[in-house]
Amino acid sequence: MCSGGLFGSVVNLFGTVAGPKYDGKYLQSLLKGILGDSKMNQTLSSIVIPTFDLKVLQPVIFSTSEAKRNVSKDALLADVCIGTSAAPTYFPAHYFETKDSKGNIRSFNLIDGGVAANNPTLLATTFVTNDLLMKREDLAPIKATDYRKYLIVSLGTGNAKNEQKYSAKVASKWGVLGWLYDGGSVPLMDVFTQANEDMVDIHVSTLFNALQSEENYLRIETDDLIGNTSSMDITTEENMQNLIKIGENQLKKGLSRVNLDTGTSEEVQGAGTNGDALIRFANLLSTERRARLAKSALQPGS
Fold this sequence. Notes:
The protein is of the alpha+beta class. The protein has helices at about 10-15, 25-35, 65-70, 75-85, 120-135, 170, 175-180, 185-210, 235-250, 275-300; strands at about 50-55, 60-65, 95-100, 105-110, 150-155, 215-220, 255-260, 265. The chain is globular and about 70 Å long. Its EC number is 3.1.1.-.
């Protein structure tokens, strides 16, 4: 998610006081039409979807594995997708209900999960670890805390070009309005979203570095989006094509990792491109899948 884009532009933030920028009806009809009555427990692979519940003011995480254990979290995929895409100021919050095993109603009042997990890498890692602790057979014989066996590909959606536009000298003069508006930007939102995203990257990088498994963690992100490409909702054909070009260029860029001292990403000399790294990951995952299928075929009753 673009830094500063989570809560929309300043014009949107202050200009749509009567309601969200979009009513969300088309998005909702599209998701319901595609996903129908499919539920969280029916996904083809294990997924994790973060949301945030406004009523209880805490994150609510939906996952395939939990949906199989807890019927109250086995919501319609459409409802979860509508909830997690309900970015404040853009779409209305989404309400729906489920029932637990005793028929008791559980209600959800959801908005965009990005407010809690703008970079969901750590969240996904946590849920895989939990599945291992629950001894999911398809993940055996990996140990829950043996992170050297983990392969993580984290794909960011880009951040607006910063150019060090803030400083302590400037920020020391801001009151409430200053933190919410500064020359077309929303400093407070920039701080929250960027801090959330980078802290996860630093945490995971530190972990894999300590385990001497740096090559098992790949983070691909760009922080130089400008103009329309840094917007969340400009869907003209021209802008979509520009975003495709940015993505293609990312594949050609040298693989980079976060410098734990400076917090900035630096190219790793001799490590090849992001595209090379993705091919390597794909080969590793393909080999692992074939091994699991072969093991499954040898088991009685399979």
